[in-house]
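Dear U.,

For the methods section draft, I wanted the exact inputs and outputs in one place so we can describe them consistently. I've listed the two proteins in the order they'll appear in the manuscript figures. Please don't edit the token lines directly; just add comments below if something needs changing.

First protein:
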Amino acid sequence: MAFSPALSRLIDAFRVLPGVGAKSAQRMAFHVLQSERAGGERLSSALAEALQHVQHCRRCRMFAESDYCDICSNPQRDASRVCIVESPADVMALEQNTDFRGHYFVLMGRLSPIDGVGPEELGLDVLRDRLQNGPVEELILAVGATVEGEATAQYIGDLAERYGANITRIAQGVPVGGELEYVDAGTLSQAFSGRRPL
């Protein structure tokens, strides 16, 4: 059965969301039209407003409604310590679960030449300028332990070295409450090689 053009466009629009396939998109579209029309209007309005007003912070590339985000604008934050993360979601996770009071730099991805993602797409020219002009003493790498994450970490490490910034990396390994027999080999190896004095 063919859907009307408007319904087909709505289903296709939902498919831009990560992890949403054809069936999920269809279910969402039907739900909004069947029982959440007011919610759909709010969603549409909020999305249009965010697309119009939300941009990238000029210093850290986090989402903001002005030139600089709340973190970069806060004089109480330590601008000499910069945590490098892959996404805005990582910033939120660190803000909610740690006592980090420095600044961030959001890559919006990781190096992946096969996907056409190079240093320019990650804003590493902005980071280079920040290292060159700002009082950055420590770069803290909080990127994933994937092949692309490792390549990104290496590239940023080389960049930091050129400008004399210390570089550290968040610890990786066995999760709290995890049992060794259930931890994958790569994670266990990383945890063992990254051991520290008690």
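Second protein (the one for the lower panel):
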Amino acid sequence: MNTILVVDSDGKALTAAHRRLRRNFETHIALGARSGLQRLVEEGPYAAVIAEFSMADMDGIEFLARVRTVSPQTSRILLSRTSMGVADLLRAVNEAGAFHVLPASCDDQPLLDAVGKGVRQYEEMWTSSRDMRDTCALFAKAVHEIVCWLRADLRDLLSPMLPLLRGLCQRLNDPDPVLTETAFLTSIVGVIALPAQTLEAVVSGRELDDAQKLAFAGHPEHAVELLRHMPKMRDVAEVLRGYSNFLHLSLMPASDDATDMPDMPCGSPILALVMEYRMSLFENLPTAAFMGRKRERGLYASSMLLALEAQIAASDQAETPVGLEALQPGMVLARPVTGTRDGKSMVLAPEGYELSRTTILFIRQTARNGHVDEPVMVKGGGTPRNTDQTES
């Protein structure tokens, strides 16, 4: 059952509204607008939020306008114990995007109908949004796969970090981990736009000079150019912009002034931290030394660094041997897959790579036309990550 939130600064009226709605909806209440916003942030999103117009600390229209910013898909319903003028009604529509405006004294049925319609609208919008998220994720995975097969030297840059990224997003309560992962995979487009010498220095673990560091920090912006003409990918582009900003901040002198930190999506600093850690692995820098540098620099919150340490420790799992025919999408390689193709020995997929259907097909075709060393060693008990229709 989708949950609704009722907000009023009058305790008796709040209790009465709760009684009217609780039989039909899972109903939460908040005494006053500020309490309502706190519940929305900590316990939302709610399918519908109902607010009284004449609240003491903030009128219902201003409150619902803030709800619109925090949770735009939530249906917003305004109740009023007093008569509202035309100006306030226009504010309710234009500023708050109110789904319904009702007198607080209305009968139960009109109120239940309005809330029911609001909940259904939320469900439809959420389903549509999730479908679009899945489509964007599929697009990002396809782009990443294509680039990796065209440029084998990039195959072990991003994919081995996906299990770490997902675990970190979960530990840090990323509100939209699919969006964060989509931005991460799409950033491969920016990587291939780097100068050849910079890219070769990155994957070989050589120390970058200042110009190369700046170029690498800007690589997510190249992916933004690909996405900026695609309206459904604008959220991904915003994460990429923030990601690039954070990588640039890591190159600047430390500052004690927190106001210097620009606003950016939650996923942006997560991506930057994961990429910085990836670069440290190319350099063979011990994890403890990397963490020491990041703590000394002070750019990342201590909670982020603790979460990364915990996820790194959790990722050290036992290896399980798996035959070629038993490979499944979502399995993560504990060791590189090696073999011979066209008479040449090669690494077909690197350690840490998350197998997709495309990769498995490539490995099996190589085995038929050449040779693949078996068994394939995967992490954990050989159980794939929970995959869905977005798996490429």
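Candidate sentences for the figure legend, describing the second protein: Residues 386-392 have pLDDT under 50 and may be disordered. DSSP finds 16 helices and ten strands in the chain.

Thanks,
Y.
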